[in-house]
Amino acid sequence: MLRFNTCGSVDDGKSTLIGRLLYDSKSLMEDQLEALERSADLSGGGRVNLANLTDGLRAEREQGITIDVAYRYFATPRRRFIIADTPGHVQYTRNMVTGASTANLSIVLVDARSGVIEQSRRHTAIAALLRIPHLVVAINKMDLVDWSEARFNEIREEFNSFLPRLGIRDVKFLPISALNGDNVVDRSPHTPWYEGPTLLGHLETVHIASDWDLERFRLPVQWVNRPNRPDDASLHDFRGLSGQIAGGVVRVGDEIMALPGGLLSRVKAIHTLDGEVDEAFCPQSITLVLEHDIDISRGAMLVKPDDLPGGAVDLRAQVCWMHPRALERGRKFLLKHTTNSTQVVVTELVNRLDLEHYERQPEPAQLALNDLGEIRLRTARPLYYDGYCTNRLTGSFILIDPATHATVAAGMLLPPTEVVRPEMTDYTI
After folding, report:
1. DSSP state of 367
2. Helix (H, G, I), strand (E, B), or coil: what is residue 30?
3. Angle formed by the axes of helices 118-129 and 93-100, to 10°?
4. How far apart, in Å, are the Cα atoms of 240 and each of 171, 216, 264, 272, 424?
5. Which of 220, 225, 243, 380 could form a disulfide with 339 if both were Cys (CB 3.0 to 4.6 A apart)?
6. What Rg, from alpha-carbon coordinates, does the chain have?
């Protein structure tokens, strides 16, 4: 499964690209094609508008822009995909962050006529901040510049002038025309000078297995599975710990520690949807059965005792502020991290990130809507986590307003400064 998002400035062709990708890859049902033809008169002057496949809101179709994140699923014989079509307006930066937060790959669209503009830099910087491992710079509307190789190279060089500062290593540049389908699914005859893959060809072959943290075992416990079925003797005393593996590999017989209590046991069995297995790895959803019935509930994290996460009450994090009311020092929230929730207070606003110049402004008075910056937090009880740069699943969180239950911020934890080793109770003896 490859998750990717599209981003870029307004009218760079993000929604049209996704529509073309779905249309040319034969991933649309008959009813979707009929609905697309019926909507042709609403926008596009009677011509089928491929952007309508993702721009579902009436306001989006009338204005020709993307406002909210739209998700689409499709599959080819080689891979399955989940697409997030994210808006380009600066006022919808929070929507872009939401759509890109789970992406393995980000497609930044650039209008070949306009070249690299502020929003191109902004969205590339956000992709780097979110640690998206793979980046595709799709230089769109090449048909409007006569498929000029010189123009393509000029835009690529402009990107290369600031990409090293962002730390993105895997970058691919493609010349395309989303409206006409050139180099999207099928290779274009207009670019004999381009020897790389088509967009779909790259999406099908990009290597993402190493994007997951397969070294440090992490299993946030989502719920304790107690079927208690009297009709099945094997399930009468069954007690499993269910959740999605957030990192590493686990095998039957491995020693396991439950945080925050520090209780030790061993893995007795591993259950998946397809049956019992001897080992499992990130990002599988599993149910672990331990040799001992120890006190574990939702919010606990199962790890291996020789590779503990960081544990602290004082946290440092990068956040994207998503609420009209600005963030100020001293405000209190609920922090949701994996399956765990705790009360938290903002103790310091360290800096605000200027995405236009990629500079940090120290000690801002507040963070306004769509601002990104570094803050310090203090939690009511220790939080066990990895830095976002190490593990995107155990290094991310959201802040929730306790009064309205609105999600007000998305955060990325900076690496812990120390590992707090809890008192251990060994049940393996």
Report:
1. B
2. helix
3. 40
4. 42, 21, 15, 11, 21
5. 220
6. 24
Number of Cβ atoms within 10 Å of the Cβ of 173: 18
E-strand spans in 183-308?
218-220, 223-225, 240-244, 249-251, 255-259, 263-272, 275-277, 279-281, 285-290, 301-303
Where is the domain boundary, 286, 303, 320? 303
Are 324 and 397 members of one domain? yes
Tokens 């959201």 sit at which residue? 398
User: In 3-state terms, what secondary structure has residue 93?
Assistant: helix
Q: Are 111 and 11 in contact (CB under 8 A)?
A: yes
pTM score of the predicted model: 0.80
| 338 shares a domain with 243 | no
Q: Which domain holds residue 337?
A: 310-413
Helices and strands (H, E) in the chain, number of each type: 8, 24
Residue 367 belongs to a domain: yes
Verify that 292 and 316 share a domain, yes or no.
Answer: no
Last residue of a domain, one of 174, 196, 211: 211
Digits of tens for pLDDT over the chain (429 positions)? Answer: 899 988 887 777 777 888 888 878 877 767 666 666 665 544 445 555 666 666 554 444 444 444 457 788 888 899 999 988 877 666 667 777 877 888 899 999 999 998 888 888 888 888 888 889 999 999 999 999 999 999 999 999 999 988 888 888 889 999 999 888 899 999 999 999 999 999 999 999 999 887 888 899 999 999 998 876 666 656 667 889 999 999 999 999 999 999 988 899 999 999 999 899 999 999 899 999 999 888 899 999 999 999 899 999 999 999 989 899 999 999 999 999 999 999 999 999 999 988 777 788 999 999 998 888 999 999 999 999 999 989 999 999 999 999 999 999 999 999 987 665 665 544 443
What is the distance between the alpha carbons of residues 217 and 189, in angstroms, rounded to a whole number? 48
Clarify whether residues 204 and 255 are in a common domain: no
Do residues 241 and 363 both lie within one domain? no
Nearest one of 378, 291, 283, 293 to 338, comparing CA atoms: 283
